[in-house]
Specification:
The chain is of the alpha/beta class and 387 residues long. The chain is built from 17 helices and nine strands. It has a nine-stranded mixed β-sheet, sandwiched between helices.
């Protein structure tokens, strides 16, 4: 393969074979359901009554072709970077001076998280905003996730993904750009700023973990609200971290179940949308049912349950030390009220060059899906000073 073929940007259109959809419907119809839990609600996992109803909707009412067409409204491409396929949306703004912005999802998210903010960010003029706030958007699927497909070799950790993103932006002709991310996207965004400091002008994060300080002097400076945030995270971690322990230690064993059973894949993801969103009784309180199913479909149709889980294994078995020292890149943080891991500004400022901090009244971990208006407005406000 010559160099041009290896670095080519290839147009992509989503077109799932009907046989794959028929197979999904058959598997959903033949689900072998477990017995009832011995505790009420979601305390032992996704309640059977809820999941049966949701799976029934998936099989009989959800229209993949409608959502496939919705995804295909946006220009999509693939390219090969570091011997691995990378899928991405690339939506240019009609405004000539738009700032390039790379947005990265996390687990168990996908490019579906950002569908409702593409218009407001690329064409603010058409969405009640100021044309000067426009962005050219690049929204990739992390290698091993969704439409990028499974990774075929080890080593796809945060650093390697960040290097791939720097190469992707170079191929697209962008030499000065911003970056945004939540969940794994926030760690990839931080690393991208370290990998390409001359290109990344600023970063915006809707996830940033802060832990209780070891220094008694720092601890003494924290407010009651600061400690409430830290305590909430520490109290939630034992109950909510089981998925990460499994994915960080035995992702292949898990992959057999999730790749064979669509209801298994659905339950594994929908639990997180219940626990991590601004919801009360069900994930649909925060994210529409069909949008949630479209996100699940990208994992199911591509068979990337195992390869996306390996991201956690790579993090748990690092091949390099984490970078030391305070990060210099100008950083904006959007804290959504229902996110279980709300950071503490005093602690964040020790390690990051925080120049913007927003406390938003609604929304949780999947901020762009839950509150696209608040998300887009905060991104616009932050990057205004870096144009």
């Amino acid at each position: 393969m010559n160099e041009d073929a290896r670095t080519a940007i290839r147009p992509f259109e989503l077109d799932i074979p009907q046989a794959a959809l028929d197979d999904l419907a058959a598997r959903l119809g033949a689900t072998r359901w477990p017995d009832e839990p011995t505790a009420s609600g979601w305390s032992q996992g996704v309640p059977p009554a809820y999941l049966k109803e949701l799976a029934g909707h998936w099989r009989t009412a959800y229209d993949w072709r409608e959502h496939e067409a919705d995804l295909n409204r946006f220009p999509q491409f693939t390219t090969t970077i570091d011997r691995t396929n990378v899928h991405f949306l690339h939506v240019r703004s009609p405004e000539p001076d738009a700032l390039p912005l790379l947005i990265t999802h996390g687990w168990p998210g996908s490019i579906v998280e950002f569908l409702d903010v593409v218009g407001p960010l690329t064409d603010p003029r058409a969405h009640g905003g100021t044309p000067a706030d426009a962005f050219d958007l690049v929204i990739p699927s992390i290698p091993g996730y969704g439409l990028s497909g499974p990774t075929r070799e080890p080593g796809w950790d945060v650093h390697r993904v960040a290097g791939a993103w720097a190469e992707l932006m170079r191929r697209l002709g962008y030499h000065r750009y911003g970056a945004q991310g939540g969940d794994w996207g926030h760690t990839i965004t931080l690393e991208l700023a370290a990998v390409a400091p001359e290109q990344v002008v600023a970063i915006h994060l809707n996830t940033l973990l802060t832990l209780p300080p070891d220094d008694p002097a720092v601890a003494a400076e924290l407010t009651a609200d600061d400690w409430a945030r830290l305590d909430r995270l520490l109290e939630a971690e034992p109950e909510m971290s089981g998925y990460a322990k499994i994915q960080g230690t035995r992702p292949q064993t898990l992959a057999y179940a999730l790749t064979d059973s669509p209801v298994g894949q659905l339950a594994w993801i929908v639990e997180k949308f219940k626990e991590w969103t601004d919801s009360t009784d069900a994930p649909e309180d925060a994210v529409s049912r069909d949008r949630l199913l479209t996100n699940v479909m990208l994992y199911w149709l591509t068979g990337t349950a195992g390869s996306s889980a390996r991201h956690y294994w790579e993090a748990a078995h690092p091949s390099r030390a984490a970078p030391a020292g305070r990060r210099a890149t100008p950083t904006g943080v959007a804290v959504f009220a229902a996110d279980v891991a709300r950071p503490v500004r005093r602690l964040a400022e020790q390690d990051h060059n925080i120049v913007h901090w927003s406390e938003l009244p609604r929304g949780g971990h999947f901020a762009a899906m839950e509150q696209p208006g608040l998300f887009a407005a905060d991104v616009r406000t932050f990057f205004r000073r870096f144009r």
